[in-house]
Amino acid sequence: MSKNIMTRVGMGVVGALASAAMLFCALPAQAATGWSALSTTEKKSSYGYFVWKSENASDASEKATAADAADLLKTAHFKDLTNIGAADDATSLANMEVSIEQIISINAFRSSLTNEPCRTDLPKGNPARACDDNGSGLTPLKVTDKMMAASQSNVNYSSHHWGHAANNGQNWDFALENLYTSSAYNPWTSDNQSAAVKSWYSEISNYDDHPLDCGSSAQIGHYRALTNKICVTNETKVEVLPFSTTGLAIARHANFNGNDYANGMTQSQVYGGMQWMGSSGYEYDASNYLSDFKAYVAKVNELGKKYTVTFDSNGGSAVATQTVDSGSVATSPTAPTRSGYTFGGWYSDAKLTTKYDFNSGVTGNITLYAKWDPITITSLDDATAVSTPAGVAPTLPAQVTAHYSDGSEQPVDVTWDSIAPNKYATAGKRFTVNGTVSGTAIKAKVTVNVTDAVPTGAVAAQSSVSTIATHAPDLSQVKATVTYSDGATQQADVTWDAVTPDQYASENANGFDVNGTVAVGDKSFTVTVKVIVTARTIASVTAPADQTVDSGNEPTYPDTVDVTYNDGETGTANVTWTKLTKAEYGKRAGGEFTVNGTVDGYAKGVSFKVTVKPATVQSVEPSATTAQTVVDQTPDLSSITATVTYSNGDTETAGIDWPQLTKDQFKTVGDRVQVTGSVTVDDTKHDVTVTVTVVNATVTKVESPQLAAGADANVTVDSGTSPETALNALKATVTWSNSTTTQESVTWDEPNKADYTNRKGGTFPVNGTVTIAGTDYPVKATYKVNPATAQKAELADGTTTVTVDSGTDPTGELPKTATVTWSNGDTTTSPITWVTTSYTKDDYAKREGGSFTVKGKATGLDVTVTVKVNPATVTVHTEPVTIGTTVGVQPNLPDHTTAEWSNGETDTIAVTWPAIAADKLDTTGSFELESNPFTVDGKDYTIKATVTVTAATVQSVDRDVKVTTTAGKAPVLPKTVKAHWSDGSTTDAAVTWNDVPAAKYAKAGTFSVKGVATVNGTDYEVTATVTVTSGDKLVQTPSNNTNANNTLTTTGSSVAIIAVIVVLLVIAAVALFVLTKRKKQ
């Protein structure tokens, strides 16, 4: 080691370090002179390295130092011993790389010597202890290009000539040197330490023994230079003189003691930066210097090579391949195009994670991949605010304006989220609705303002009204119930259409509809009421005046009676009377009788009283006006009776009270003696006279009464009539001895009542006696009884009216028998045959009731009965109801009920409800509600409801999803599917999909992927059907969840972009940190 101490110079060059690593990653085009003019051997040497840096370093000081280093190799004292780029020369790149690695190793070794440089491990007072405070210890030595060139020049000399170059004419004012020579090339020890530094440090024991004896045969100079304690001539103590820079070179050749070793190794380390020493230029950390150097080595190793840059446009337009010299840069081509996408740059990997830098030199065949960003929606304009009446679901716009990543804009369809009814239930509310637009996760928005409720419909407050036939219905009091959009109701007047007389002219149980108009604000509604036309019935009947008739005179029966109808008007109606029999109006004693009549359409009937005056005697006639007697014999007048005839036509035979007669009155033959007798009737005496002729003769023959010509009996009577009177009128013919004949009375036996009352009639004999002058002469006669005839038929139990409920067929209720009165006075019970075709269901099913007459026959006689129909009763279904709903949803309350009439008719009755406050539906639970009153048949009714509010439940989940991808591209499965709830709303349910092996989508075809969607704690299996196409373009297939698929795809792209940005930011931060660190070194 040289003992010359150079002139003391100031140390230090503070270099602003630029990253050479970046320089060698992006080499600019070379000039025609300088580095580009060097030979390949020169380029592949430290000389070429220094020239390159002198041209391309970013810092002027860095360039100047590199230029000085290159110049030093060419101008050094022993420049001829430097064979630039030779394999054994220190300037070869391989030897220089090992040299830099040795510096790093030596710095580490120096830093490990904790007792250096003072040697504080030695006791104070020991001359080898240079100081008491090691300070920062042996700090890492910086590297400069100039120091490296100096060590290379030195070692090229020393590898061929034993000794230091400085001792043989080479003088540097910036470097001191340690040398190491070995007969074999082996720079490293077995424990991976520098062999040279091991050798130099081994001098420590010599130093400990002779710290000041730098010229002794026991070497200590290498150790002292290594540990910042260089030897100084004539020193009296050891001083620490720290170095800050270094350079190291290795030549693969050695000369030792005059012998050359072709495979030997000579190593030189020069030290600089100490006080008094000259500057060695721009300084580097050894590790950074090694990185920069390796980058240069990589560059020059590529000299002469050409590489192909291939552009994979990933479905875009084709881009031409480029051929590039090694280390040169590729030219960024014109951006390709692809429909529906914007070009996102070229990437060096197929996964598009690292963007390619076209300023980087090409060092191999590469393929660059185009990144495409779908033209996506970047923002959505809020839709224009809408207004909706309370209770009415708002009508939202079908489209909103979308702004795209390529700067365009256009209307797009939007699917709005479902809106809970309680959102728009109350006027004055304001809320926002989100919507989904296919292809973006950005939500569309629209503001909804809830205005006052509006009328939505109206119904007549009562379903029907009644009127009497021929009378116009009064609709003036019929109101309408108007329902508003929030469920509230109110009554309103109705303007009814005109009704024509023909519509209510006759009974119409089915009724007819009348429409009316309800005007509410600027809206109008049509309502309908049914008009039931009831029959015009008789409310009362004016009975005819009572009559008084003489016995035997039949009363008069008016054909019509005066009636008053249910509409208050009067008129006449036909009447059917049950007439008095002759026995009644001809009753001799007279009497009072009631005559009953039936009026069609009137159930109560009508009657008048008939007073029959007693009959009076009209005449009293003897049965014979003449008689005979024999001289001196009083006549026997006992057989002569009187016939009393009454004013009613009745006759009766009465005995005659004759005066006491004497023989003297009958002494002269031929006398005609007037004999007057009397008949007392009702205490009144009536005289009858018989002329008795006195004869002088005897009876020779008495003959029975003769039959009239063509007659089959002497007397004919109706059954029930005694033949006695008729028989008494018969005379026997008496033939006298004087040949004269007389008609003499006959005393007849009493006829058998059983015979003359026989209803079937017949001919019966009767015996009689003619008494003349005390002698009885028998005679015979016959009487014929005509069959009896039925005179009248009356309902057996006296019933005249049958009452039934409306809708009940009266057939089964009609009387079964009638009492028939015969002309002979008999009465019999006879079955009645009713004429059921004389009435129809319309007669007995009238809702308002009424009456009608049913006709029948009994023994051929007419009978009638009045059927009174009670008005139908109504049963209105007002049973309490239980209604379920979910939170926030108005319950579906019944809007009608049924009125069932006892006649079988039914009416549908409109039901309205009061509005339900929104807060009643905000939470689960139950509450009671009563409908608005409604009227049926004049009576008000309501219905009570129990409303139970429950939480919404899941009704269904969209379980089928369709996805399309291209071969080789993993399908993008939606992260969510739609869940549909019982309240009509929908939500997104997260889906966990099974893994999809790459083989599934490696080629065109279809396959399924299973997943699980979890909603409210319940798992639902979902299936995605994936269609793999062979084309380059991924065409979205509509699915059951299009919005979810688009959202997922867009989010994935966004995440990828964010990830790239984060990586680039990290890289930028690291680069900034490295640059900062280097500048601080």
Automatic annotation (TrEMBL):
It holds the Pfam family Flg_new. The keyword Zinc-finger does not apply. It is found in: Cell envelope. One of its GO terms (molecular function) is ATP hydrolysis activity. GO terms for biological process: protein folding. NCBIfam families: List_Bact_rpt. Belongs to the TCP-1 chaperonin family. It comes from Bifidobacterium parmae. This is Bacterial Ig-like domain (Group 4).
